[in-house]
Amino acid sequence: MFETLRRIVHAVNEAPDLERALAVIVGRVRDTLGADVCSVYLTDFDSREHVLQATEGLRSEAVGKVRLPLNRGLIGWVSERREPVNLADASSHPRYLFIHETGEDRFRGFLGVPIVQNRKVLGVLVLRQCESRTFEDDEVTLMMTLASQLAGAITHARASGELARLQHTNSLPNHFLQGLAASPGIAIGRILVVYPPADLEAVPDRPASDPQEQEESFRDAVQDVVEELEQFAKRTAKDLPAEDRALFDAWLLMLESDTLIDGTVERIRQGNWAPGALRETIEEHARVFDAMEDTYLRERAADVRDLGRRILMHLQNLEVRPVEYPPDTVLMGEEVSAMQIAAVPKGSLAGVVASRGSSSSHVAILARGMGVPAAMGVADLPVGRLDGVEAVVDGYRGRIYLSPGPAVRAEYQRLRNSDRALSDELEGLRQLPSETPDGYHLPLFLNTGLVSESRPLGIEESAGVGLYRTELPFIVRDRFPGEAVQLTNYRHVLEIFAPRPVTIRTLDVGGDKPLPYFPMSESNPFLGWRGIRITLDQPEIFLTQVRAMLRAAIGLDNLQILLPMISTVDEVDEAKLLIRRAHDELREDGQEVRMPPVGIMVEVPAAVYQIEALARRVDFLSVGTNDLTQYILAVDRNNAHVAKLYDDLHPAVLRALTEIMKGARTYGREVSICGEMAGDPMAVVLLLGMGVHSLSMGAGSLLRVKWVIRSMSRMRARELLSVALQCEDTACVRRLLLEALEDVGLGGLVLPGS
Ligand code: PEP
Ligand code: MG
């Protein structure tokens, strides 16, 4: 049976389109299982019908004509139950429906198997037999396996419009592909499919006939890429905020890094030719990032591979053919690289769509910086068949509509217009204070540090830095950065924002963000050795970092130190002792350092339940809602399978936040929110109601959040909070907040348009 199945699956995969795939299935299955009929009914979601789409054994003229309402007959019964229905004599079943057009009245045996993907029933695969027959277990499982194979093909066909043509509907139904919202906005344009410039993975090892010459070609190729990058950087200089231009610096740094150059040269000298040596070095480097669970850092692997392909292209002297970009280019690919984005002429880039990546990909960061709508991680994207196809990109919801019908198109044009009006309106808020109509001031701070940046965006509008993540310099190097390197980094950010406060977090690596040179392998990294647990176990790392921070703040005195992943009071006591020790030793050395305020991140449930004991020990609290949500809900924040369950507006998270506020109040401590929640317009209403003292977010959210604060009185926010706390599920909270935002005319902040 397995071999039969393998052969059918192979034949289905070889079929050039869905119509032929269906024909293969019905023909082969009928013959293999000795049934009299095999048919496929597909769901037409627009007309809410099951349509007979292929058959072997029934009248062929019925194909496309037999349309059964979704809840009728045995097909409807299989679809409702979402499990196989195996009947020796179908005609005695109460849901049996006599269908004259197919000539099915002669048959008794019935096996119907639903074709399901992501909980949606896409159709039903059916076997019929003249005489009474109960199908065997292994026949049922074969049908189930084929149904799951078909599900993928159907999804592709729906996406590319093939199914609409098959079902004889002219306009593509209002069907969309779902990805991750990576950059807000609406784009309507033509797809231009991009693909990697050279296939690095396919390069073989080969002995270098002349290592000297190989080394020279390699160095030349690197130099060519450096020049290419410098050109891109120049070209995008005017359109990109400084923060994002720094990406080019990061790539240049990578290109010039010892790991890349010396690693490859070393391999050439050991006898491999340049392309092979390059492949090995790039793979080794990229694997380090691949292994990281933090989405942002894992995405860096794509950057490394992309650089590798560029170098290879120059090594192979491949010409970059000039590309014709449509005026409203929607750049699409399995993987789109930031360099491919940079190559699109100014003004021609309407949107970006990729099957890989997430909202923390460099591509997503670039797209946001350029104000270009983007959706990443769009599964089932039939990239190969989409060049030149019209598309709508809904960057708010991460949706893609391919060949949209007139109604979808018109609706999105309307949304795009109101979206543009919204951006103009937000611009007007730049100089205004972050204050509610009833006079409550809620300062907005910046989260920064993740991208190497010389002048972070949002400096002027923010009250300071609420969270400076220090991991980057530790991760991009091949050893711990020394005190001097760290001092320079910290001094830079402290100086830019002085006299406004800058909260620098001590190292939060480990678990999901392992260091390449600090190997650890854990089966449960999120519950493992991470954050403060590592730095207290390795006090030399902690002391070096704290010394660098204290010295960097000399004369500026705007430093605050933040401790991540605190789960016990001992950790706080110990960390404070070490900070005090670093301070005292520096003073003894004659350095004019001052003791800064010290705070903790509240991001594990244990900290919530001990909030008073913790608050008593520190100067301020900062809530890391990203981790707090994942630990309270037991949902890995980077796992796409459970992404639907991850929601920081879950009633349990809201309750935890109110507990934190209560505990902090007992000791008069200020509470800041620095997870993604602080930048979400809906959540901000509740945080305002809770009386948090400040919010810290990415630069892109500052104006939107300010608009909420300026439109919603503190009193109203309190009322909404008390209603939200009665909600039993997230949907109830979201409905409430959406209505509240719509009431003050801010529905457009959540949904495109209003
Ligand atoms: C958080 O957990 O909310 C947080 C801000 O920290 P990070 O995202 O760096 O884990
Ligand atoms: Mg965290």
Q: Helices and strands in order, then pairings?
A:
Elements: H1 2-14, H2 18-33, E1 37-44, E2 49-56, E3 67-69, H3 73-81, E4 85-87, E5 109-117, E6 120-129, H4 137-160, H5 162-166, E7 177-178, E8 180-183, E9 186-193, H6 211-236, H7 242-256, H8 258-269, H9 274-290, H10 295-315, E10 329-333, H11 338-342, E11 349-354, H12 362-370, E12 374-376, E13 390-394, E14 399-402, H13 406-427, E15 444-448, E16 465-468, H14 471-475, H15 483-497, E17 502-505, H16 532-537, H17 539-552, E18 559-563, H18 569-588, E19 598-602, H19 605-609, H20 611-617, E20 620-623, H21 625-633, H22 651-666, E21 670-673, H23 681-690, E22 694-697, H24 702-711, H25 714-724, H26 730-743
Parallel strand pairs: 9-10, 10-11, 11-12, 15-16, 15-22, 16-17, 17-18, 18-19, 19-20, 20-21, 21-22
Antiparallel strand pairs: 1-2, 1-6, 2-3, 4-5, 5-6, 7-14, 8-12, 9-13, 13-14
Helix pairs in contact: 1-2, 1-4, 2-4, 6-7, 6-8, 6-10, 8-9, 9-10, 15-17, 17-18, 20-22, 23-24, 23-25, 23-26
How would you describe this structure to a colleague?
This protein has 754 residues and is of the alpha/beta class. It folds into four domains: 2-166, GAF domain (Beta-Lactamase, 2-Layer Sandwich); 177-195 and 322-406, Phosphohistidine domain (Glucose Oxidase, domain 1); 211-315, Orthogonal Bundle (Enzyme I, Chain A, domain 2), CATH 1.10.274.10; 440-749, Phosphoenolpyruvate-binding domains (TIM Barrel, Alpha-Beta Barrel). It has 26 helices and 22 strands. The strands form three sheets. Strands 7-14-13-9-10-11-12-8 form an eight-stranded mixed β-sheet. Strands 15-16-17-18-19-20-21-22 form an eight-stranded parallel barrel, surrounded by six helices. The protein binds phosphoenolpyruvate and magnesium ion. Phosphoenolpyruvate binds at residues 467, 469, 508, 603, 624-627, 674-675.
